[in-house]
Design goal:
Layout: E1 16-17, E2 39-42, E3 48-51, E4 58-60, H1 63-71, E5 78-79, H2 82-88, E6 99-100, H3 109-113, E7 119-123, H4 128-135, E8 140-143, H5 151-166, H6 169-192, E9 200-208, E10 211-216, H7 222-229, E11 261-264, H8 273-276, H9 282-286, H10 288-291, E12 295-297, H11 308-323
Parallel strand pairs: 4-5, 4-7, 5-6, 7-8, 9-11, 11-12
Antiparallel strand pairs: 1-5, 2-3, 9-10
Helix pairs in contact: 5-6, 6-11, 7-11
Protein name: Iron-siderophore ABC transporter substrate-binding protein
InterPro entries: ABC_transptr_periplasmic_BD, Bact_iron-sidero_bind
Keywords: Signal, Transport
Length: about 325
């Protein structure tokens, strides 16, 4: 299963690639290990991926892998849909060197082959045919991308694999410290605001043929795990999928929620189903949290399936919503 794409009226997903070479974040000047000793990384398939040395020219076929590379100080040479990435992921911006390699579901094998890559980072769920074609040309590291049984553990397992492959393990340790410190600060603020234990229902939604489908981020989703870590509770009554913790319901399904804080994500370029389609819906207007004004839209550019930096953004945005 690939990382679910947010669809708000239209489907999204195009993979871009290019670049003259890997660049390093100046603030992490020593992040990429020197030397060229062989490296072996066991990926999420249990497969040993053998590299001649730390991978410097790297491409990624999903945005979680892209964000994690950039956060580790490795600017990818090729990226899945950089334009879409820039719309959805503000935590780890790309530079102008990144080029297009096709769509996230169907990366261009020719584009990948032309870049002189050391490694391609792929998220589990890429079609097997595409994976085989890429792997016949370039070493491939398959990261898990999500695991509802342990979403935060899965996230840092992926970061650790990428860090080992790129020789950026010190940067990975710093990224973990930044994540832990950010969530600890947010938890302290939640407690100061008297909101510890509050129930928060987080979702996104999309429109199909005039009907709104709501996607609850149930227990097991990465965003929910972050909210729980800072002291909030997940009230969604349904179970999500085993990888991303995502459920599905409609506006009638929202009547099963208690009187909660209702938070959601939309994207300015694709519209806001809650504000634009459900605004005149009698069921929506009658919900207790709608009537008391406890509905809050999160800022654009927070990727729900992202890396540690995106998750710290979610913790900060949660605190801002509680203050508001």
């Amino acid at each position: 299963m690939r990382i679910p794409r947010v669809i708000t009226g239209i489907a999204a997903a195009v993979l871009l690639v290019a670049g003259c070479g890997t660049t390093e974040d100046p603030s992490r000047g020593d992040a990429v290990a020197d030397g060229g000793q062989p490296i072996t990384v066991v990926d999420s398939r249990g497969k040993a991926v053998e590299l001649d040395g730390p991978a410097k020219r790297v491409a990624a076929t999903e945005w979680n892998g892209v964000e994690e590379l950039v956060s580790l100080g490795v600017m990818p040479v090729g990226v899945a849909d950089p334009e879409g990435y820039e719309q959805w992921v503000s935590a780890a911006p790309l530079d102008d060197s990144v080029r297009d390699i096709g769509t996230r579901g169907e990366p261009s094998i020719d584009a990948i082959s032309s870049l002189g890559l050391d490694l391609v980072v792929v998220t589990a769920g890429l079609p097997e045919g595409a994976l085989r074609q890429i792997e016949s040309r370039v070493p491939v590291l398959v990261i898990e991308g999500g695991n509802a049984a342990d979403p935060i553990g899965s996230l840092f397992s992926d970061v650790g694999m990428i860090a080992k492959a790129t020789g950026t393990e010190p940067a990975a340790a710093a990224l973990r410290a930044e994540f832990d410190d950010g969530l600890a600060a947010a938890k302290a603020e939640v407690e100061r605001l008297g909101a510890a234990g509050d129930q928060v229902a987080f979702s996104d939604a999309y429109v199909n043929s005039g009907s709104v489908t709501i996607r609850p981020f149930t227990e097991g989703s990465l965003v929910s795990a972050v909210f729980e870590r800072i002291g909030l509770r997940n009230p969604w009554p349904m179970q999500g999928d085993p990888r991303y913790g995502l459920g599905q319901t409609d506006v009638e399904g929202l009547t099963r929620l208690p009187d909660v804080r209702f938070w959601y994500l939309a994207n300015g370029s694709l519209g806001d189903p809650y504000a634009e389609v459900l605004a005149d819906n009698a069921i929506w207007r009658g919900l207790p949290f709608v009537q008391r004004g406890a509905v809050h839209r999160f800022p654009d550019g927070l990727w729900m399936f992202g890396g540690p930096k995106s998750m710290v953004q979610y913790a900060d945005a949660a605190v801002d919503a509680l203050r508001g």
